[in-house]
Amino acid sequence: MTVLTRWEPFREFSTLQDRMNRLFRESFDDTGRDESLTASSFAPAVDVYEDEHKVTLKIEVPGIEEKDIDVRIENNTLTVHGERKIEKEEKEENYRRVERQYGSFTRTFTLPATVDSEKVSANYDKGVLKIALPKKAEAKPKQIKVNVGSDKAGDKTLEAKGPSKAA
User: Fold this and answer.
1) pTM strictly above 0.85
2) What is the topology classification, in CATH, of domain 41-142?
3) Which residues on adjacent β-strands are paired with residue 147?
């Protein structure tokens, strides 16, 4: 089975920049290491797919509590904002490596005109936020039945408008 992964050429530069920023903060900042671990922001991965009834977004946000996620629609724009907080139970000096990203995130999506923003729903389960964006009824495809043979109603109208038999 082949798996496709999104290649982001600048991800390593971002990681390097975060590490350099952390190094400078730790060296020259006396406010403590706690802020250096939580100061970055991140963009969670999102899958977007569409069928004839709705557009669906699945956003990976594990470790974020439901109360720390905000979903809004304003001016045909969907905005998802949240924050992953560092656990205070562990002391930072015990960490050997920190790869999980902490801090706040904001993702915005311009909604197509076919979405019915009054019927949007969101569900959070097992670290995945699923947002269902139903389509408006007029935007859904409609199948037209094709009749075979003559149209009886159309024939009667033609007869009624035919020549009169007044003599």
Assistant:
1) no
2) Immunoglobulin-like (2.60.40)
3) none
